Amino acid sequence: MSTARSDAAPDSTLPEGQEQPPPKPRRLVLPDGLRPYRDPLLLYGVTKLTGLIVFAWLLEWADDYQKKNPRFGGGTHWWDVLATWDGWWYLQVAEKGYDPGPLERLAPGGLFTVKQNSVAFFPLYPGLIRGVSEITGLGLYGSAILVSVLASFVAAAGIYAVVSTLAGVRAGTIAAGLWAVVPGAGVEWAVYSESVFVAIAAWCCYCVMKGRWMSAGLLAFFAGLNRPTSAALIGAVGLAALVTLARRESRREHGVAGPVYAMFAAPLGLLTYIAWVGLTSDSVTAYFTLQREGWAHYFDFGKYTLDVLGNTAVGHSNYLFAFSTPDLLSVQIVLALPFLIALMLRKKPPLVLVAYALASIVTVLGTQQMFGNTGRYLLPVFPLLLAPAAALNRLKWPSLAVFFITAAIASGWYAHYVIFELGIP
């Protein structure tokens, strides 16, 4: 009885003396679930890297950053600039934790009447920095950049998922690329919490769109541990859940438990942290006092924004936090907002996107803060990319390539250099 030849054995049919050819190398194949994200993430990564390279060249060419304080836009190497301003605070929290306690009062009469304290910076991002550092052995700076870069790709994937669902795959890919070049995009690969927040916000909105209420509530909870502006996202999730429960058809489709869970889970992260700051300080409203009297940031119903617009219209700078170049760019952004909002609404996006975008815009324009940072403050408002992405979708790839190459190079200046070196990000 003959024995079948094993497939693993050498081929005995080869001529004597001829060696069996080496096996062909296996091709790296993306899992089916990740394959749709290849193009948008590639476009985002190449575009973002181009802007960063231009930023580095501008820093070296201007040769100003080495003369500045390492906390305020300076450093020994160009990449040190990415960890200045708010980045310095995040690294302090990651290294030393918080120093809670009664707010320290300063002498009256100055701009700030309370000493700045690290509790103004929410814990999720510095916590991720510390965790990555402990696991990988990287220093805190390297861990912070790693967290921001990885989170930025997760955010770009989330933006792609949302926009492709509403306007098609190609438009979703374009939207991911646009997020790399929007004003304020310079903090996406810096020691700032925006990338983590947008990653959470985009996927949270996507979960609401798909009726995944448990995931949406959990993501909104984590958003509340990352930034105070998560209130806009939390409110949007709550409103979408409430409308779902109010309609009989959607209530039958989604059930009751999921939307109810999302409504109650979403605000817990934000409320818990603000309550903790209050309990460890001398006042329940300590966080808001710190923001107002330690950073001069508070909601004033748009009075400060109107003041800046009026001053810049006549060439004056008689307003708080005046920085000519960033402010002029921010004026253009504010003037473009009504047009962008109208185009977004014309696309009839889901309620969660509309509520999140509008609440975020009202918060930004209604708050006294660094006006030159308007682009950064609006960076999380990714639903505004829906209409531009759909419009650019009509172009052929050669035209789109020219657009993205030009925008990527220019973003090294307006989205990076302007905010870090000509203003205060």
From TrEMBL:
UniProt main location, coarse: endoplasmic reticulum
Transmembrane residue ranges: 41-59, 138-163, 169-191, 198-223, 229-246, 258-279, 328-345, 352-371, 400-420
Membrane topology of this protein: Multi-pass membrane protein
Keyword Metal-binding: no
Protein name: Glycosyltransferase RgtA/B/C/D-like domain-containing protein
Keyword rRNA processing recorded: no
Spans annotated as Disordered: 1-29
Entry keyword set: Endoplasmic reticulum, Glycosyltransferase, GPI-anchor biosynthesis, Membrane, Transferase, Transmembrane, Transmembrane helix
Organism of origin: Streptomyces vulcanius
Location within or outside the cell: Endoplasmic reticulum membrane
InterPro entries named in the record: PIG-V/Gpi18
Source superkingdom: Bacteria
Organismal lineage: Bacteria, Bacillati, Actinomycetota, Actinomycetes, Kitasatosporales
Metabolic or biological pathway, per its Swiss-Prot or TrEMBL entry: Glycolipid biosynthesis; glycosylphosphatidylinositol-anchor biosynthesis
PANTHER family, per the entry: GPI MANNOSYLTRANSFERASE 2
